[in-house]
Amino acid sequence: MGFQSALSEFTLAKIYFDEPMKKHTGFHVGGCARYYAEVDSLFGLNHLTSLAQKHKIKIKVLGNGTNVLFSDLGFDGLVIDLKKLNDVFFKRDEVRAMAGAKLDKLIKFNLDHRLSGLEALSGIPAEIGGAVVMNAGAFGHNISDYITTVETLYDGKIRVYDKNECKFGYRTSRFLRKKEIVVSASFLFPEGDREIISAGIKTYLDLRKSIQPAGCSCGSVFKNPKPYTAGALIDKAGLKGESVGGASISDKHANFIITNSKARAIDVYLLIQKIKRKVKDAFDIELVEEVECVGEF
Ligand SMILES: Cc1cc2nc3c(=O)[nH]c(=O)nc-3n(C[C@H](O)[C@H](O)[C@H](O)COP(=O)(O)OP(=O)(O)OC[C@H]3O[C@@H](n4cnc5c(N)ncnc54)[C@H](O)[C@@H]3O)c2cc1C
Q1: Is 220 annotated as catalytic?
Q2: One of 38, 122, 144, 171 is an active-site residue; which one?
Q3: pLDDT for residue 241
């Protein structure tokens, strides 16, 4: 039996064929994933990945799609969506969050239980899996600050990594672009005062609103090449407001590319290349993408 027929009979996940990735990504662009599966159990995830491996089908795990640019040509493989695997709960004195839980859900859980630490990350539109893989962070705080262990699934095996094995760095970890699937993360948070935690969340949300543009985007496109910020370099290279097709550099924050309803993935991609070229010419600095391009460009 081929993979398509096997998937048609697969009952442990909700399966879609030729699913438009523009429905699932921050830029709202991109072609179709040949196969798309919404998984709601580790059991289902294990069976699905084994089936895909058996049929040699490429797998891409999706979080909230806020750091990925899928090609207009689509993805010739299986995209796995974990958003239904989203519990957040106590495991003894630690908090465990499943990969598909929204980061804001974890922050709300912490507020309800008077736990502090992640307030600065409020408003990052990530799922826990994507946030762990990217080591999402803001205003000097990173999700890895409070992680104790990360649990993964690969090849039918669950593996638990201690924090020091996770190789967390600036917007990176050992899990980035690897085959292991992050299924949960455990955290140890300091206790705090509810009013102070709540005020912290509001302060950071207001700050975020004041510096980041609204509209369809994937947040910062490039990593900051320390000691500079990518936004300042793009601005100084005279690129603010520049556009290709339906993709343009934000007037408010030059490291954001905003797409309109007519944008295609190739517009974003070409704008990224243009920015890299101009910044290299102006300052001899190679900007490195934080956003990941998936598929052929
Ligand atoms: C308005 C806006 C503001 C933002 N602000 C910030 C910010 O302040 N700080 C910041 O760090 N980022 C920010 N981002 C970028 C983005 O939200 C983060 O990079 C986030 O960590 C991506 O999470 P995601 O769930 O959307 O992951 P996705 O974009 O879906 O995936 C990112 C990568 O992780 C992989 N992945 C996802 N889940 C798993 C899993 N369970 N197992 C294995 N691999 C997985 C994907 O395959 C992909 O390689 C912002 C984005 C937007 C749109």
Answers
A1: yes
A2: 171
A3: 83
pLDDT tens, 19-44? 999 999 999 999 999 999 999 999 99
Same fold, 88-211 and 230-294: no
Across residues 183-201, what is the average pLDDT? 98
User: At 7, is the secondary structure helix, strand, or coil?
Assistant: helix
Residue 218 beta carbon below 6 angstroms from any ligand 1 atom: yes
> Class of the 3-81 domain?
alpha beta
- Cα(223)–Cα(227) distance, integer angstroms: 11
Instruction: Judge whether 290 counts as a catalytic residue.
Output: yes
Nearest to 100 by CA among 70, 68, 132: 132
Q: How many whole angstroms separate alpha carbon 237 and alpha carbon 225?
A: 15
Question: pTM of the entire structure?
Answer: 0.97
Structural domain boundaries in the chain = 3-81, 88-211, 230-294
Q: Which residues pair with 172 in a beta bridge?
A: 169
Q: Which two tokens stand for residue 271?
A: 């704008």
pLDDT for 240 equals 86
CATH 3.50.50.60 given to domain 230-294: no
- At 226-277, the pLDDT tens digits run 999 999 999 999 998 899 999 999 999 999 999 999 999 999 999 999 999 9
Catalytic residue among 19, 119, 151, 290: 290
On the CB side of 275, CA atoms within 13 Å amount to: 34
User: Separation of 113 CA from ligand 1 center, angstroms?
Assistant: 25
Q: Which residue has its alpha carbon closest to ligand 1 atom 35?
A: 130
Q: What is the mean pLDDT of the chain?
A: 97
66 CA distance to ligand 1 middle (Å): 5
* Residue 241, token pair as written in the block: 């407001």
Opening angle at CA 84, ends 205 and 178, nearest 5: 85
The topology under which CATH files domain 88-211 is: 3.30.465
